[in-house]
Here is the input.
Amino acid sequence: MRALLIALLFLSAPLTVRPADAPPQQYDALVVVNIEGFGDAQLAALSKHIGTERGISLEYACTWAGIVVLRFEGTTAGDKADVTTLVGRHLREAGITKGIEVKHVHVRATGTGKC
Here is the structure.
């Protein structure tokens, strides 16, 4: 009986294990940010920082209104909180630390079978 249980355990184990090499789900995100006091110097710093990064682009910027629209492609950040954290990190790395308000975040899954 013990041998039968051990045999069943070893035979059923591969059926219940997820493949370790499965790629993580990828997402695209579009983020609208209002930055108080946003000017030409901050826009230049943000553009320079984003130019060195992969998977992020500056879609729109208006210094007069302080509005910035960022697009993230192929990120693993799948919910709004993760994307907001990602935006804050990139803005801090560009030297923008104050007056940041995320107005809108749109996240969608990409990959096979996704439109």
Summary: The chain has a mean pLDDT of 86. The longest strand covers residues 100-110. DSSP finds three helices and four strands in the chain.
